[in-house]
Amino acid sequence: MDIWPIKWKLPDLDGLVVYRRMNMPAVIKGEDCTACGICVDACPEGSISMDDVAKVDPDTCIDCGLCVDECPSSAISME
Ligand code: SF4
Ligand code: SF4
C-alpha cells in the first residue's frame, strides 16, 4: 500500500519545515472542542474554521499535525 501522499507541499514556517506525511487529515471531535480557537491560529494552511466548534477542511489540510499538538482539549486526531 502506498502510504505517501497524493499531494504534498513544503511550507516554511519560520524555519520549521512541515510536510504532508500521509493522506490522514485532521479530524476534530466536536463534543470535546471548547471553541478556544487555538487550532485556527496554529494551522499553517488556514484549513480550520470556527463555527460552534472548530472544523477542518480535509481538502486543504496537509496533515502536518500542528493542530493536534496545540489543542488543549485533545479534541483533534489524525485519521
Ligand atoms: S484547539 Fe481544540 S478545543 Fe480549541 S478550538 Fe481547536 S479543536 Fe477546539
Ligand atoms: S493537520 Fe496541519 S494543515 Fe491539517 S488542520 Fe491541522 S494544522 Fe491545519
General description of the model:
The chain has 79 residues and is α+β, with helices and mostly antiparallel strands. It has a single domain (12-78), classed as Alpha-Beta Plaits (2-Layer Sandwich), CATH 3.30.70.20. The chain is 13% helix and 20% strand. It has helices at 38-42, 66-70, and strands at residues 12-13, 16-17, 26-28, 48-50, 54-56, 76-78. It has a two-stranded antiparallel ribbon with strand order 1-2. A two-stranded antiparallel ribbon has the order 3-6. The protein is globular. The chain binds iron/sulfur cluster (2 copies). One iron/sulfur cluster (SF4) is lined by residues 28, 33-39, 54, 70-71, 73, 75-76.
Order of helices and strands: EEEHEEHE
Query: Mean pLDDT across all residues, rounded?
Result: 82
Strand order of the largest sheet: 1-2
Helical residue percent band: 10-25%
CATH class: Alpha Beta
> How does the overall form come out from the CA principal axes?
globular
Number of strands: 6
Per CATH, what is the topology? Alpha-Beta Plaits
Radius of gyration: 12 Å
Characterize the main sheet. Answer: 2 strands, antiparallel
Count of discrete structural domains: 1
Structure class: alpha+beta
* Annotation field: number of helices: 2
Could you provide a short overview of the structure?
The chain has about 80 residues and is of the alpha+beta class. The protein has one domain (about 10-79): 2-Layer Sandwich (Alpha-Beta Plaits). The chain has 2 helices and 6 strands; from the N terminus they run βββαββαβ.
